[in-house]
Structure formats: structure tokens, C-alpha cells
Amino acid sequence: MRKNQNGIHDFFSGRNGMDNLSRFLLCIALILIIISGIFRLWILLAIGIGLIVYVLFRTFSRNVSRRYAENRAFTELITGTGHAWQRFRLRRKDRKTHLICKCPNCYQKIRVPKGRGTIVIKCPNCRIEFKKNT
């Protein structure tokens, strides 16, 4: 029994294993397979099985640096999308009380309160003052 455990440990040492990209692809594959079973779409079944094969390839790959780079690019894509969505939500929430204007010199976005009439805004980036009607 101990010999089999060492053999499995030796097989998996130096392999990539499951990372965030592999988990995401596996979930997509399972969703596609379920949809293909409901609607009898063989193309979705083929794509789902292909994704599972790719996940197994990534999991057992010994080229860890390449798989790490792929996972890092995926994580940056997902994180960037999340930050953009959060910025959109905050702007939408503040649209009644605040205005976003750009500095005419450096184009820095500045958040100022609405309904104050003409105000003098000092850019925090380049320190230039300009007037804006809110």
C-alpha cells in the first residue's frame, strides 16, 4: 500500500494541478454538457468533452511556467472586469449627486458635487485650477 502511495505522489510531483482557469473551464464544460443533454445539441457535447480533455491536459502538464502564465492572464482578465464593473456601479450610484469632469491639462478625472453652480476645481494631479459649472 505504501508503495502505491509513493508512486502516486511521484506521478503528481512537478505537475501543474488544478488552478483557477482549469476550474473555470471545467464548470463551463459541465454546463455545456448539461445543455447538450437537454436540447440534444451534439456540438455542445463535443465542445464540453474537448474542454474536459484540455483541463486534464492542463492539470497533468509538467510545463508549470506556461500554465502559470495562462492562469495569471486569466486572473488579470477576470480581476480587470470586476474592477470595471465596480467603477460602473459606483458612478451609476453617484450620478445624481456628483459629476465627473476632466482636467483640461492632464485629462485626470475628478469627482465634484453637483448643484453648486460655477466652482473652481484644483486638479490633484497637475495642480491647475479651472472653472466648471456643476
Give descriptors for this structure.
134 residues, alpha+beta
Going across the biggest sheet, name each strand in turn.
Answer: 1-2
Mean pLDDT score, rounded? 92
Q: How many H/I helices?
A: 4
**Secondary structural class:** alpha+beta
Helix share bin: 55-70%
Poorly predicted runs are none
How much of the residues is beta strand, in percent? 5-15%
Could you describe the largest sheet, including whether it forms a barrel? 2 strands, antiparallel
N-to-C terminal Cα separation, in Å?
A: 76 Å
Give the oligomer, counting copies of the same chain as homo and different chains as hetero: single chain
Reading the helices and strands in chain order gives: HHHHEEEE
Principal-axis shape: elongated
- What Rg do the Cα atoms give? 26 Å
Beta strand count: 4
Description of the molecule:
There is one protein chain. The protein is of the alpha+beta class. 60% of the residues lie in helices and 15% in strands. The chain has helices at residues 2-12, 20-39, 42-60, 64-94; strands at 98-102, 109-113, 118-122, 129-133. The strands form 2 sheets. It has a two-stranded antiparallel sheet with strand order 1-2. It has a two-stranded antiparallel ribbon with strand order 3-4. The longest helix has 31 residues, at 64-94. The radius of gyration is 26 Å and the shape is elongated. The protein starts with a helix and ends with a strand.
